[in-house]
Amino acid sequence: MAMISRLLRSTIKAAITAQGGFHTKHIPAVSSLQEHIVRNSTQARYNSTEASLQNDIPATDNRGFRGHDMLAPFTAGWQSTDVDPLIIEKSEGSYVYDIKGRKYLDTLAGLWCTALGGNEPRLVDAATKQLNTLPFYHSFWNRTTKPSLDLAKELLDMFTANKMAKAFFTNSGSEANDTQVLLIAFKLRVACGPGPVLSGL
């Protein structure tokens, strides 16, 4: 972990140095990595009491919408305010392109949901048809959709475990993990009776 922190520090400092000029400023941070950062004078305006820097940048500016209005996960506050975000505009297969036309290999599959690549024709066609018919509907209170039933059957047909009798769909890995823990706790309670409460992982 210490090595990763050192690498991150050197990478950040090198990136800022490449932009020219030094200006040392203390930055309130959530980790020691962000306690002090070397910044040039044009990047020093990050205080949350000031108006967002996005007011100084027209929407057509190609610097990347510094000071944007999004709250980004795993991103320090000063980065959102003072550093241009990487803005991805389009995808082709396993590659994505930013607003300046630069090409990147998307090794994270969009972080979770584009394992088959971007704009895969079969997915685009299926999604377009479904969006034109029924964009979304929940499965609460014994309600569902035909595509959901078809997918559940197809998934269960792949498994030989005869006790795996149902499929449960979620919108994210977090929901899947939370549900898994709750289902295990429920099964244990039914099988063994009341016991310790699982309060966290």
UniProtKB/TrEMBL annotation:
Keywords: Aminotransferase, Pyridoxal phosphate, Transferase. SUPFAM superfamilies: PLP-dependent transferases. The keyword Transferase applies. InterPro entries: Aminotrans_3, PyrdxlP-dep_Trfase, PyrdxlP-dep_Trfase_major, PyrdxlP-dep_Trfase_small. It comes from the Eukaryota. GO terms for molecular function: pyridoxal phosphate binding; transaminase activity. Belongs to the class-III pyridoxal-phosphate-dependent aminotransferase family. This is Gamma aminobutyrate transaminase 1, mitochondrial. It comes from Nicotiana tabacum (Common tobacco). The gene is LOC107806271.
